[in-house]
Design a protein that fits this description.
By secondary structure, this protein is an alpha+beta fold. Helix content is about 30%, strand content about 20%.
Length: about 725
Amino acid sequence: MLHISVITRLRSHGSSCVYVTRTSALNSTMHLTSSCTRVSQLSSRLTCKYQIIISTALGGGERRIKNIIMTMEWVPKPSEVKEYPPRDIKIPPKWRDAFDTAFRMFDQDNSGTMEVSEVAKMIRAATDAQPTEEELKGIMVEFGGGGGSTSLSRDGLLQALQSGTLRPEYRGRYTVAVSLAEAETIRRIMHMRLEKKLIDGSDMQLALRCSEAKNMIFDRSANFQNPTRYQREASWQSLRYLNCDMYFQDAQLNTLIRAMQYTPIRERVVFFMTILGCRRRATYRWKSTPLSKLFKILSEFHMLKNRSQAVRMRESMKEKGLLPYDAFRMFNVKKTGQLSPAEVWGALVWLGLKDLTPKDIFGFVEAADKNGDRNIDYQEFLDILRNPDAAASKEGKEGDSQLDDDDLDDDDDDAKNSKSSRPEAIINAEVLKSYEDKLMAYEDKELKEEGKHQMREIKEAQMAAQRRRAEIETEEEEKQVMAGQMKPNPESSESCVVWDFTTSRKPVGVAKMNDSHYHMRRQGQNYLKIYANSAITLTPNIRDELKGNMGGERINAYTIVMEIKFDSLPRKKKASDDMKDGDMVPTERALLNLNRLEESDAVVSIDSDGAIGIAGVFDKRVKMVAKKWHFLTIVADCKEGKMTAYIDGMAANTLDAKGPSSSVSSPLAPLELDSQDFSVSPDKVLAFFSTDSSKMDCEIDVKRVWLYREAKSETMVGLMNEEFMSRDPWRVGR
């Protein structure tokens, strides 16, 4: 009996969960025989029509996953392997719009149907495989509406792409990620059995593959039948995604996007960042890697749309006999050395593409733009013209041009040094200006809002991933707490959460933003030093105990206490260069920011005089001093529209948005129920963060933070302060 522990199981069109088993085993027919405990929901629909099982031997415990190097293809019962039914041609409207645009690009004669040659080009762009004459003939017969049909309609071509004819997939095949030790054991079993069946009485088949060696087979059992090219590739790329690889070739990304297209983009980000956190790695900036396309491109049809425009440009240039350098110089009307979106629009129109919209142009530029400058330079232009059938010798890392194409003439360098007889420009300044105006109008009206929405989605995904990692850490901590090895940190109940930074262990659910470090003042006594331009985020609701109150989803009545110290208060600065040295103005340091999406400034801050400000309004009655520990208490009642700050139990500032004499003018949102800037989100609290980096230029020391789910009275705040001071072993002020 071969024992394999399971940590993750990903299934098609169903729930994708993380599981942990204690004593998993595979019996003679290789079926899992143990009950699994759900740990964390990763994605509601991770669409892989094959099952992937991840062994816990890949990690040093239940939460850590190491690199996946070896995989095992497992066919329990080859006789029961069956092809999946075709995918539904009733796709979402956005997908259909992208498909229709791609169809229009490939339909060069604008007939509304496609001839065999046009069908071949579109299938090549969609599947990254050149169809054979026999395959094309079968497609025309099956989806052309008649035995002698020589063309395909839009619906016919969509049906062909959604069928299993071009990319067949079979149920009953599994991919298992195994550790090196497990792979060695499985290979030994194969060698011992040689040409015999691995298990008597079973026709089970196994094969070992190495992901790092281009997924090549290391060993296989007798009579092992290879999967289809697409199913093998989809399984491999999905495992690479799980492995947190970020550099994919274009064809590999196309396969991965198709496998993941039923998973919303937000869930893709959550899944990736959660797994990245479980690997205990830094969250690399994936935005500058090829993987970023997975978090931008919605479906395979959007990928096909981007490719169709590039194919049409390449074909049109070939028809006109244009060398790449000549074409680039002609399209670059403003002679800037890079093509602007307006110039791209003019180039596509000149090449014969019709009915283009600003959305099409921005999509084309975004797909080609690798350095993020929203233009297409010459290298990116050459990549658009790259022959898709060229054999790539590298893995498409940033900077690889892969220009071993027949389409790019070898004498292109000579063309740069020679004078061309072709016209210097293809469109006049007036037409170019009209394109610029249309693009600017679209950008101001729709693209900026779409970009903001996408950024919000990514931030929401990052917060969800952070909370799920915190949940995993919490379960680990609870085991040690139950064993008496430590106290819970943070301590939480239905009414309060306490984060303690006086131990050398980071509280669960706390994430650093930039640089912070633990310092020790006395033996056994620590505090967290937050350096300049740094902050921390707190996750209050890890155990689902803190809920929204006062009829809202957020915590609308609360008390936050921060035990903090400044070695030096924010420095005063000159308001302008012509001011004298004596004429200095105070600056601020952010203390509390409640906007979970980081879209507005801190609601509570401190200035150079030690005064506390609420929503940018400062009160000089009570001040903090440097080199002394203080208790800063923030009491808020969003329903009543009131927020008060206390320093060591003494009222230091009050914001009463509904008071009769209130004259507060704040750039922040109104102090009201579920206010994004004044109420507390159970998911995220930002401590010491500001959207303005100039308000984060001094260091802060912190020992503890309390969050109460009620607005304490002034008397209670005073009593709490006395209690905190009496039980603090450091004695506040020393």
